[in-house]
Amino acid sequence: FYPSLAGTTNMAHNQKGCFIGNTIIESASTVSDFIELALTKVKGMKEIFKRVINTGKEQEQISNEKDEDLLSDYLVNLWHGMNVARRYSGGSEQLVQTIKFSLQVLD
């Protein structure tokens, strides 16, 4: 999932970022149905992360004992940060290494 963020060297694609993240950032000072939809999608992504974290813990693939809610918030934040980082990295090996390092929190 995360390594796919670093997998492209297509700069035009990298410059676009994440539609949901961009919507939230650009619309933060206004209240609209559009931003509500974007926030709903982020909440949905967080719930997916929570389910995967729970499954990973049950299968002993994730050993971090931190609360699933905190870990899923971290992963959503990581997603947004990586979408920004890929804009200037060009799909570099450094970004791949940064993603791997960031995901060690699950160990």
Radius of gyration over C-alpha positions, nearest whole angstrom = 15 Å
Summed over residues and divided by their number, the pLDDT gives a mean of: 77
Low-confidence sequence ranges: 11-15
Encode the helix/strand succession as letters: HHHHHH
Can you tell me the overall shape? flat
> What is the percent of helical residues?
over 70%
Keyword list:
107 residues, mainly alpha, 70% helix, flat
Question: Can you offer a commentary on this structure?
Answer:
By secondary structure, this protein is mostly helical. 70% of the residues lie in helices and 0% in strands. The chain contains six helices and no strands. Helix 3 (19-26) crosses helix 4 (33-58). It is flat. Mean pLDDT is 77; it is low at 11-15.
Structural topology:
Blueprint: H1 3-6, H2 11-14, H3 19-26, H4 33-58, H5 68-89, H6 93-103
Helix pairs in contact: 3-4, 4-5, 5-6
Compact overview of the structure:
This protein has 107 residues and is an all-alpha fold. It has six helices and no strands.
